[in-house]
Amino acid sequence: MKANKALISAGGISRSDGVTDYDLNEASMSRLLMNRSEELIVLADHSKLGATTFAHICELKDISTLITDSKCPRDIQNNLLNQGVKVLFPKNTVTH
């Protein structure tokens, strides 16, 4: 299979460990999707940023776009932008 875009979720995103996940099988599937797509889009809320979980998916430089919430720390946002990663924030969020 081949895809234009791969959208994956992340358990953690950190400067030192890149994109990680809690589950080894899910991380493996995310890597397969990433390798068969032209663009990697990662979905992660601010609580995942700066965190590292069990299974490595990829380095930060491999991400095309990060979609996160407005609580994304400025230093992490700047680091991602410096590595060529687009950082997008949804305009409408649902709160409970």
Structure explained in plain terms:
- The chain has a single domain, classed as 3-Layer(aba) Sandwich (Rossmann fold), CATH 3.40.50.1360.
- It has helices spanning 24-35, 74-82; strands at 3-9, 12-14, 18-21, 37-43, 55-58, 65-67, 86-88.
- It is 22% helix and 32% strand.
- A 4-stranded parallel sheet has the order 1-4-6-7. The protein has a 3-stranded antiparallel sheet with strand order 2-3-5.
- Strand 2 (12-14) and strand 3 (18-21) form a beta hairpin.
- With 96 residues, it is an alpha/beta fold.
- It contains 2 helices and 7 strands.
What would a concise description of this structure say?
The chain is of the alpha/beta class and 96 residues long. The chain contains 2 helices and 7 strands.
Question: Could you list some keywords that capture this structure?
Answer:
96 residues; alpha/beta; Rossmann fold; four-stranded parallel beta sheet; three-stranded antiparallel beta sheet; 2 helices; 22% helix; 32% strand; globular
